[in-house]
Amino acid sequence: MMSFLQVAQLVDSAFPTGAFSHSFGLETYVQEERIRTIPDFLTWMEGYIQGTVSPIEGTGVYWSAIWVPAYLQQSRQQSEKQEQDKIKSKLLDLSRRMTGTRLARESREGASKIGKRYLHTVQAVYPETLLGDYASWIKHERGDANAAIVHGWICAFLQLTPHMAVLSFLYQTVNSMLQNLIRMWSLGQTDGQKIMTALFPLLEREAAAITAEPLLPSQMYTANVMQEIAAMRHESLYSRLFMS
Prior knowledge:
Elements: H1 2-11, H2 26-31, H3 38-76, H4 81-101, H5 105-125, H6 131-140, H7 147-157, H8 162-184, H9 189-212, H10 225-233
């Protein structure tokens, strides 16, 4: 029961991650009236999840959740530092690859800002997670904070399965984007929940696919080129609610 409450806390839209400031190109689509209806948004969201989030952040969450348990165990047992350094190198490489795979500058910067905020909040709420080590690595080795790694790390600490880590991250992502859509549209909360419910099967399929046949970090990709272009053009919009 405790693990359920803890993961529910992490994916709640009230948990401060800074995601409310970033639309990752969605605002461009809405302003240009390429998203005008709920079916339009569902189509966009499906493309965003399948073409960007799953192959990048979903992969990142999975490998973080796979590698971090060994790091935590070795830290508790005070094992040889060499083994911990191997995991550190893999996580930093994973973080850099996730940042580099996003094509739009605002998307890269937005993901980094969300990662820093998520890292800060989780550290404050769960100081015993050793996420301070990750914070130190990215500070001293010029890495980018990444919410996917933070989420995989905290889920590993909470002893959740990699599948649950990935699924909860996908839910968190959709929930954040949906709340941003509600701010852009005159959309009621009930309609918002209907949209979320309609996306549940997609999230289940994507989480199952990621954990059944995970991409290697070197295989991460983005296939949603139009969304990336919209994210690039976002900075030239006449007026903006969001930073990306």
